[in-house]
Design goal:
Elements (H helix, E strand, L loop, with lengths): L1 H40 L6 H20 L1 H10 L6 H17 L4 H23 L3 H22 L5 H9 L5 H24 L15 H15 L8 E3 L5 E4 L2 E6 L6 H20 L14 H16 L3 H14 L8 H8 L17 H17 L7 H13 L25 H21 L3 H5 L4 H10 L9 H9 L6 H14 L6
Parallel strand pairs: 1-3
Antiparallel strand pairs: 2-3
């Protein structure tokens, strides 16, 4: 018994040393995240050269600590030892990171970090000037670097599959492809039926011009209504809205267009969903995977759940329209049904992903997925991206971009080197519907609560079943524990067919 106790104490000491190392890695990473937030939100335009070096240095430090021999030795010692379930989960997650990163030379990691830091202003300039050629050399370099990165991790695997696993390690690429194909196959006929429908939806409920300051005030009203914790967050603007941070500091950004009040509302709700997930992670897990979100598909499920299932619902507009009227008296003649219809119209001529409705949105994702997959495989040359992009938009959505700014330069992701990221958007939308259905099964009809502006029950369910677990479970395990079934597109397709069938008077839906 004394020997067993000594072994247990030895394991405890080893785990404590290991956890201290993990927390150092996390803190370096979160510090880099604050610098990236600053670069995209408030940094002066000429700050890039220094910021690129700062981020590159932090990336290098993070890589060095993670891939050090001491980290590997601690992992080897802990694996197979007597650990709690939570400790075993931390070891599992760090092992996955360690194995990937020890395969990649530090020089390559540093080069990727420096290149992406410099890529952001180059992309921004190219988009502003509608000039893909400005960005093309940078994109080509990033493609080459990420191919090299993937080859170091697994030279025998499809490089795009390796990159996808960096964002979604537990739902494989085959699952993503299967979901995207099913959405494409089943949404296209629904969208065609909508195009042929004679339904006369109110699409101009939010027409007009709206000052940025007033829109910001309304965005704050949205966040107040949903229960955003201002003591641990803030609201700013960015060209491409995003959320970042930790459970102690989860920041939201949105954007304002003078003629698009509805867009700023939905964008703010979307980013609230992300920040709300981050804020729901356990405080005592900070610094370890137990205090980190469970990868991008789950993260996107939270933003899509709040944006679409809540923010685009009829009960939400019954609740929120009176608040919006206080800021914008010009909305006095708009009723909740008209607001609901405007928030859910299906666009037949939209070119911009972030402005897409929740049906055509997935075809925007399919296009990006197919292009970046072909870029990484070498089947598509960078110089051909604008033409292929435009051809696919014409084929899948029936519209053709006239400029690169509204075409292949509209997204920031490739300037970050984020190849393999896009599929998680559709996976997240599908999971959002599955989680919302499970929440309704447990809580009861949520419409009355949303109508009254009462979101505590829904948020409490998400805290209990998703947020508080951090990375304790793999994605399939988390989904099955939360919903009682495996990951499926059934709930999403049932939701959109019912909702849009009713909106557009479709007999077959």
């Amino acid at each position: 018994m004394a020997t067993d106790q000594a072994q247990s104490e030895g394991t405890g000491d080893t785990y404590e040393e290991f956890e201290d190392r993990v927390r150092r890695i996390t803190n370096v990473g979160t510090a880099a995240g604050i610098l990236q937030w600053d670069q995209e939100v408030v940094m002066p335009d000429e700050g890039t050269p220094a910021r690129a070096q700062q981020l590159s240095t932090l990336s290098s430090i993070n890589h060095e600590i993670l891939t050090a021999d001491e980290t590997g030795a601690l992992l080897d010692e802990l694996e197979g030892s007597d650990l709690t379930d939570e400790q075993a989960a931390v070891v599992r997650e760090v092992r996955r990171q360690y194995d990937r990163e020890t395969s990649v030379p530090g020089e390559l990691v540093e080069e990727i970090s420096a290149t992406t830091a410099n890529a952001h202003p180059t992309w921004k300039e190219a988009k502003e000037n509608d000039d893909f050629e400005t960005f093309a050399p940078t994109l080509e370099k990033l493609v080459e670097l990420k191919r090299d990165y993937a080859e170091h991790i697994d030279p025998d695997a499809d490089p795009y599959e390796v990159l996808f696993a960096g964002y979604e390690p537990y739902l494989d690429l085959e699952t993503a492809e299967r979901v995207l194909e099913r959405l494409r196959d089943e949404l296209v006929p629904l969208i065609e039926a909508i195009d042929e429908s004679d339904a006369d939806l109110e699409t101009d409920a939010f027409a007009g011009e709206f000052e940025d300051d007033d829109q910001e005030a309304l965005a704050r009203d949205v966040l107040d209504s949903l229960g955003y914790d201002w003591s641990r967050g803030r609201l700013d603007t960015a060209p491409h809205p995003f959320s970042s941070g930790t459970q102690f500091d989860a920041r939201v950004t949105t954007r304002f267009e003078e003629d698009d009040l509805l867009g700023s509302i939905t964008s703010t709700i979307h980013e609230f969903g992300h920040a709300n997930y981050t804020l729901g992670l356990p405080d005592d897990g900070y610094g370890t995977p137990l205090g980190e979100s469970r990868d991008l598909s789950v993260h996107e499920s939270q933003s899509r759940l709040w944006e679409n299932h809540v923010g685009r619902s009829r009960p939400f507009w019954e609740h929120f329209l009176p608040i919006a009227r206080e800021r914008f008296p010009g909305l006095e003649d708009v009723n909740p049904e008209e607001a609901y219809e405007a928030a859910n119209q299906v666009y037949d001529d939209n070119l911009i992903r972030v402005e897409a409705d929740e049906l055509t949105y997935h075809l925007h994702i399919v296009i990006r997925f197919e292009i970046e997959r072909d870029l990484i495989s070498g089947d598509l040359a960078v110089e051909d991206v604008p033409e292929v992009w435009n051809d696919k938009y014409e084929e899948y959505l029936g519209v053709r971009p006239e400029t690169d700014a509204e075409g292949c330069l509209q997204d920031i992701h490739w300037s970050h080197g984020s190849f393999g990221y896009f599929p998680t958007y559709s996976l997240g939308s599908v999971l959002a519907a599955q989680l919302y259905a499970a929440a309704e099964d447990d809580i009861g009809d949520l419409d009355d609560r949303i109508r009254e502006g009462e979101f505590d029950d829904l948020n409490g369910w998400l805290r209990e079943n998703v947020h508080r677990h951090g990375k304790r479970y793999t994605t399939p395990e988390l989904i099955e524990r939360a919903t009682g079934e495996e990951f499926t597109a059934d709930h999403f397709l049932a939701y959109v067919e019912s909702k849009y069938g009713a909106l557009y008077d479709l007999d077959d839906y």
